[in-house]
Design a protein that fits this description.
Length: 192
């Protein structure tokens, strides 16, 4: 992992969730507008950060889309091609080998490894795993939240921060933008 850049970027947690907090990726609205939202976030960030389960879910589909093996709309193909080129960091205690292009393993102490990644990524790191977000929130490492809240009530889990946090996180609203599909893009910064 080449981590030697001088300016620290923010760790930005971004995820789809329903009004009742469900973060099951199948419950969100997957259309051109939501893909454009996440493509913009990825474009603005210097790296992606996932836990192993999210990484393997992404790895099982998006490389084939980037290669043109899947028949998908242009917005999805654009996302896949950009994702292919983006540095991807994975936190895992069980998996060590990553063949997907530009994938890197964060091993050892979680706080230290993620802090080093933040320190080396001035454009920021986009975190997209719910369980990992809970752990990183417990370690006080998340700086911003860019959540896409979908107009749905799932009635099931998993839910955001299902494992709990040691205390309430105070957030400052930076923006709220409704999308045509009824979802609302919420951008918060951690109040410190």
């Amino acid at each position: 992992m080449a981590l030697d850049s001088p300016a620290m970027g923010p760790l930005i947690f971004s995820l789809n969730l329903t009004l009742d907090g469900c973060v099951d990726h199948q419950e969100g609205i997957a259309d051109d507008e939501t893909h454009a939202f996440f493509t913009r976030l990825m474009d603005e960030s210097g790296a992606m950060l996932w836990g192993r389960v999210t990484y393997e879910m992404m790895e099982s589909y998006w490389p084939a889309v980037a290669r043109g093996d899947e028949d998908v709309p242009p917005a999805m193909r654009e996302w896949a091609v950009k994702l292919e080129a983006k540095p991807k960091y994975v936190v895992s205690s069980t998996r060590k080998d990553y063949s997907w292009a530009n994938s890197h393993h964060i091993a050892g102490d979680l706080r230290e490894g993620v802090q080093q990644l933040k320190d080396a990524t001035p454009d920021g790191v986009l975190l997209g795993s719910g369980k990992l977000a809970t752990e990183l929130d417990r370690l006080d490492l998340i700086d911003e939240y860019q959540l896409l809240v979908h107009p749905r009530i799932a009635g099931h889990g998993p839910t955001l921060h299902q494992g709990g946090l040691p205390g309430t996180r105070q957030l400052e609203l930076l923006s709220a933008k409704p999308l045509r599909n009824g979802a609302v893009a919420m951008h918060y910064r951690r109040a410190r």
